[in-house]
Specification:
- By secondary structure, this protein is α/β, with parallel strands linked by helices.
- It has helices spanning 18-29, 36-44, 48-69, 88-96, 107-114, 130-144, 156-170; strands at residues 7-11, 32-35, 76-79, 98-104, 147-150.
- It has seven helices and five strands; from the N terminus they run E-H-E-H-H-E-H-E-H-H-E-H.
Length: 173
């Protein structure tokens, strides 16, 4: 059977609203919502932080890449972790099965939304700052995005309305 191309994958930094906007968008489109962090925890039977503690950041990225690269869903809004962009196979698969949307957030807004990094599950490599992580990831998000939506000055409802319009335009509805 041919792969479905009717999914929407939301990519962006932690706290960019992938889960919040994802759930709202899924409801508006009549799609399912898939939180890949939960899929990983169910597959691995461990919390994300336990995977990182047991296998290190590189080991976690391998697990995450494998989970995203083998997702088999249709008519779903997919919310992977912010680090999904490091997985070449994952990103190729997600682009193959649907549109990839980059939820763009300024660094200043990111700092405000994140607050305490540890509580938000953000893992930084030794010696890396949040700004370093932001600057490292943004080019990947821009590279993989079919649609980029700037969240500056918009609440979740406004972002969802705009996204729905852009997606329907793109899908010819």
């Amino acid at each position: 059977m041919a792969k479905q191309h009717n999914n929407i994958t939301l990519i962006g930094m932690p706290a960019s609203g992938k889960s919040t906007i994802g759930v709202l968008l899924a409801k508006r489109l009549g799609y399912s919502f898939v939180d890949v962090d939960i899929v990983i925890q169910e597959q691995e039977k461990r919390l994300l932080k336990e995977i990182i503690e047991d296998e290190g950041l590189d080991g976690f990225l391998e697990v995450e890449n494998r989970a995203n690269a083998t997702l088999d869903v249709e008519k779903s809004v997919i919310a992977p972790g912010g680090s999904v962009i490091y997985g070449k196979e994952a990103m190729e698969h997600l682009k193959e099965i649907g549109l990839v949307v980059y939820l763009k957030l300024s660094y200043e807004d990111l700092k405000v939304r994140l607050g305490n990094l540890v509580d938000r599950g953000v893992v930084l490599k030794e010696g890396m700052t949040l700004l370093d992580l932001y600057n490292e990831r943004v080019p990947y998000y821009e590279k993989y995005a079919d649609i980029t939506i700037d969240e500056e000055g918009r609440n979740a409802g406004m972002v969802v309305d705009e996204l729905r319009r852009l997606i329907e335009e793109r899908l010819g509805r």
